[in-house]
Specification:
The structure is a single chain. This protein has 27 residues and is mostly helical. Helix content is 93%, strand content 0%.
Length: 27
């Protein structure tokens, strides 16, 4: 469960970082 939660949080943080990087490019 801990490993799955860590992976999920990592995916969420990566997705948020990508969104923060891509949003200024598109808008």
């Amino acid at each position: 469960l801990w490993i799955r939660a860590m992976g999920c949080s990592m995916l969420v943080s990566m997705a948020s970082l990508i969104c923060l990087i891509l949003l200024p490019i598109f808008f």
